[in-house]
Every structure is written in C-alpha cells, then in structure tokens.
C-alpha cells in the first residue's frame, strides 16, 4: 500500500478506513472493532477517519474502547470538529450549528483525546465551513493545538477554495488536506476547481463516500456498474475496487476514505490498489458516470 506525506514526519496509507458508520454496526464490541482494524492493517491500511459527531458523538469512544497502546501506535487517527448537533454532549443545543471558536476547538480536542484514550490526534479537520467563522480566531486555535503537541497536522473538510484561503491566511501551520465528497456518483470536484485548487498546491485531497455511500450499488446505476464489473474482471477485482481505483488513478493523489462495516468487504478494500488504470479506461468509466461522452 502506497503512503502519502501529510506533513513532515507524518504519512498516511493511500486508502483510509472511515468510522462514520462504526456505531451503526450491530456489533460495537472492542473485539469486533479490533478485528476491523486488523483487517485494515493486514492490507497496509493504517489511517482511520473519525469525527466528534459520528454516531451521535459516540463513535470516538467506541474506537477508544478498542484501542490498546500497541494498536494505537500502529494507526494514524484523523478526527474532526465544529458541527454541533442537539445530541449527545450537545443535547442542550437549540439549533444545529457550526462552532469554529477557540473555546469549541480546544474543548473538542480534549473530548476526542479522552474518548479515544490517546495523547495525540494525527490530523484534526474543521468538518464543515462555518459561515460565522472568525478566521483569525479559528486559525490561531488550530496553530495552538499543533504547538501544544495535541494535534500533529490540521486541515479542513467540505471547504471551497475561498474558505481554504481565508482560513490559511490567518495561520502559521499549513493546512494539510481538504476532505471532500468525491466518487463516480459525485464528481463535480474534478471540474469545479476544488481538485484543481489542491492539485496546484500539491495538497492531497481526501475523498469521502468513494462508493457514493453505497448508492453506486442502487439499481439505477446498472449501466455504470456493468462497466466497473467488466474492468474488474479484466483485473481480478470487484466493481467497488474499480470505483476506488478510478480515484487512486487521478494525478491529484486522492486518498479515498471507505466506510463499509462488513468484515469481508473491509478485507478487500486494498484490492483497489492492485489496479493501475490507464487514461482511456478512466474516461470509459467517467463517460458512464456522467451519462454521455465528454464534449
Ligand atoms: N467529511 C465529511 O463530511 C464526511 C461525510 C461522510 C463520510 N465521511 C467519511 O467517509 C467515510 C466513508 O463514507 P461512506 O461510509 O459513505 O463511504 P462508502 O465506502 O462510499 O459507502 C459505504 C456504504 O456502502 C455500502 N457498500 C459498500 N460496498 C458495497 C457493496 N459492494 N454493495 C453494497 N453496498 C456496499 C456499505 O455497506 P456495508 O457496511 O454493508 O458494506 C456502506 O453502507 C466515513 O466513514 C467517514 O469517515 C466524511
């Protein structure tokens, strides 16, 4: 499994395992979570994607309950903050909102460290752009958690280029990534400037829901799936692996974040890295994704 440098001294596995759905699994016992992580590690997938809000602010604790010190040292943890929904520890919130204040960021980091039973977060992301953001305050808070050694790198998620430049303009620490929705089902980022912006700066994007959150397997996408299946048969992998390989093939150095809860599927996530896709195959698949040939 290839690795990508996120910041000097910190690199991630090219494919990341996402834990948004961790709490949806019928089995959230530590042994089961450890089995999922082990299945990832067997394939060289060492990077785990979390957020404070996942599982109604419970998913970080589910992970923490499974993490022995030894296991913690074998993985990198990404987590996020700024979404405040009236649930869990924020059940008194009157409205779902974003909070990029210093106080919220510092408190979120402490919650995440405690719940995941760790002394460091490898990468902290601002989860959603906050229309009420004071970029000086947010930028300084992110610099502060890095300087304190609690967070090794910082980045953003779902930011547009102008959100990125606003926040970065008030920070000393370089932002390391933007985690955006990107898949054969949601591919605007390839043409609306989001990927180009990161590519120009040499910043590796992270792609959430690389299988469209499962919608790639809906009956309406039969045509696209047949194409993926055909390419997969030529390379001895399944349709899902081809969909992920399509992202890996892109020169922007995308890190797909897969979220299956199924142990058999987890054990095959790495198959995508076995397939090196050429330009015409990439466009054959893209043509099926957009429903017509390019102009
Ligand atoms: N930054 C953000 O705003 C944001 C937003 C959303 C997600 N994320 C991150 O991205 C990660 C991945 O998101 P995701 O879970 O939506 O990604 P995904 O990998 O695109 O979708 C996973 C879903 O697809 C289903 N699936 C996978 N393979 C399948 C197959 N062959 N046939 C049928 N269904 C299949 C899975 O069901 P099974 O579990 O049954 O396999 C699961 O429900 C999350 O865990 C989270 O870390 C970030």
Structure description:
With 295 residues, the chain is α/β, with parallel strands linked by helices. It has 2 domains: 11-176, TIM Barrel, CATH 3.20.20.100; 179-288, TIM Barrel, CATH 3.20.20. It is built from 12 helices and 12 strands. It has an 8-stranded parallel barrel. Strands 1-2 form a two-stranded antiparallel ribbon. Helix 5 packs parallel to helix 6, helix 9 (222-235) crosses helix 10 (239-248) and helix 9 runs antiparallel to helix 12. NADP nicotinamide-adenine-dinucleotide phosphate is lined by residues 18-21, 49, 127, 157-158, 179, 208-214, 217, 240, 257-262, 265. Residues 18-21, 49, 127, 157-158, 179, 208-214, 217, 240, 257-262, 265 line the site of NADP nicotinamide-adenine-dinucleotide phosphate. It holds the Pfam family Aldo_ket_red. This is Putative oxidoreductase.
Looking at this structure, what is the CATH superfamily of the largest domain? Answer: NADP-dependent oxidoreductase domain
CATH architecture of the largest domain: Alpha-Beta Barrel
Share of residues in strands: 15-25%
Q: What is the 3D form?
A: globular
* Biggest beta-sheet profile: 8 strands, parallel, barrel
How much helix, percentage-wise, in residues?
25-40%
Query: Based on helices, strands and strand pairing, what is the structural class?
Result: alpha/beta
Any idea of the CATH class of the largest domain? Alpha Beta
Q: Whole-number radius of gyration?
A: 19 Å
Low-confidence stretches: none
The helix count comes to 12
Total separate domains: 2
Number of strand elements: 12
N-to-C CA distance: 35 Å
Mean pLDDT: 97
The CATH topology name of the largest domain reads TIM Barrel
Bound molecules: NADP nicotinamide-adenine-dinucleotide phosphate
Taken in chain order, the helices and strands follow as: EEEHEHHHEEEHEHEHEHEHHEHH
């Amino acid at each position: 499994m290839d690795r990508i440098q996120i910041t000097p001294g910190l690199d991630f596995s090219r494919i990341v395992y996402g834990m948004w759905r961790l709490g949806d699994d019928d089995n959230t016992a530590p042994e089961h979570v450890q089995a999922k992580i082990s299945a990832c590690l067997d394939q060289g997938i060492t990077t785990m994607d979390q957020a404070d809000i996942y599982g109604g602010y419970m998913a970080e604790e589910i992970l923490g309950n499974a993490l022995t010190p030894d296991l913690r040292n074998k993985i990198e943890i990404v987590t996020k903050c700024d979404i405040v929904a009236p649930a869990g520890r924020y059940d008194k919130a009157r409205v779902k909102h974003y909070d990029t204040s210093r106080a919220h960021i510092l408190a979120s980091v402490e919650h995440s460290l405690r719940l995941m039973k760790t002394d460091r977060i490898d990468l902290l992301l601002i989860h959603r752009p906050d229309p009420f953001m004071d970029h000086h305050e947010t930028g300084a808070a992110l610099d502060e958690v890095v300087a304190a050694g609690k967070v090794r790198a910082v980045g953003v998620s779902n930011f547009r280029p102008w959100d990125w430049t606003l926040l970065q303009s008030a920070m000393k620490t370089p932002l390391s990534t933007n985690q955006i929705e990107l898949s054969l089902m949601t591919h605007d980022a390839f043409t609306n400037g989001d990927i180009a912006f990161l590519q120009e700066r040499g910043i590796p994007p992270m792609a959430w829901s690389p299988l469209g959150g499962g919608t790639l397997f809906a009956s309406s996408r039969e045509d696209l799936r047949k194409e993926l299946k055909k390419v997969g048969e030529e390379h001895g992998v399944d349709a899902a692996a081809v969909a992920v390989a399509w992202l890996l093939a892109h020169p922007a150095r995308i890190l797909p974040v897969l979220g299956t809860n199924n142990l058999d599927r987890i054990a095959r996530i790495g198959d995508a890295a076995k397939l090196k896709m050429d330009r015409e195959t990439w466009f054959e698949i893209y043509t099926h994704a957009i429903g017509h040939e390019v102009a």
